[in-house]
Design brief:
Elements: H1 16-36, E1 39-49, E2 77-85, E3 91-96, H2 102-115, E4 122-126, H3 130-133, H4 135-143, E5 146-150, H5 161-172, H6 181-193, H7 199-205
Parallel strand pairs: 1-4, 4-5
Antiparallel strand pairs: 1-2, 2-3
Helix pairs in contact: 2-4
């Protein structure tokens, strides 16, 4: 026996067979998009709270050597609606202090289309959140020639962009203190503005190998 950190998984019951089939669908869709000169993106929002996240670091042994990091007391957060290209890893983001709803999703779809003006059909993988299924969002997607493909229930492991959010959290929030919300917000904008500096890390992280849970 060994003492290990617990691991969180979706609260529902994932369907392993459905996930296996979906992974094959992802591969077929990418090949189809390549033939059609289209694009494949994975879409999901994330909420980043203005607070420090504890992370591991090399420290001296003993309590006296423990590294102390300040944390913010507020609960203000930033909502990032993101899309990541399955092949090029190009991100398309819409950052807001508000919540994610169908109107924000529609606006984000428009931003995605702007990034792919000379592209055919955009195939977008996304989860089953209610606002994603709304008639308004599906109608907007149709107008923009974006085909929405919904993930199997309880399968966030099949959404490539989840790895980007984990990477963002590691780079921006782990063991890092921002004494104002504006500095925190600026750090997130700078992350996406200079995302090219992480190209090597993201190439290794954003592979099309998916875990089945």
């Amino acid at each position: 026996m060994s003492c290990k950190k617990t691991r969180l998984v979706p609260g529902g019951i994932p369907d392993a067979e459905a996930q296996k089939k979906f992974i094959k669908l992802i591969a077929r869709t990418i090949k189809k998009a390549e033939r059609e000169k289209g694009a494949v993106v994975f879409i999901d929002p994330t909420h980043q709270v203005h607070n420090t996240v504890n992370g591991y670091s090399w420290q001296e042994k003993g309590a006296s050597g423990t590294k102390i990091i300040s944390s913010a007391s507020g609960r203000k957060r930033i909502t990032i609606l993101g899309a990541i290209n399955a092949v090029t890893h190009q991100p398309t983001t819409l950052i807001t202090d508000g919540n994610c709803d169908q109107e924000m999703v529609k606006l984000h779809l428009s931003e995605i289309r702007k990034d792919y003006q000379d592209t055919g059909t955009i195939y977008a993988f996304l989860d089953n959140a209610r606002y994603n299924w709304s008639k308004a969002v599906r109608a907007e997607a149709k107008v923009l020639n974006i085909k929405l493909i919904f993930l199997p229930p309880y399968s966030p492991n099949l959404n490539l962009i989840e790895r980007l959010w984990k990477f963002l959290k590691k780079k921006i929030r782990k063991n890092v203190y921002y004494n104002t919300f504006e500095k925190f917000k600026k750090a997130i904008f700078e992350f996406f503005k200079n995302i090219g500096q992480f190209a090597a890390e993201l190439k290794t992280l954003l592979t099309l190998k998916f875990e089945i849970i």
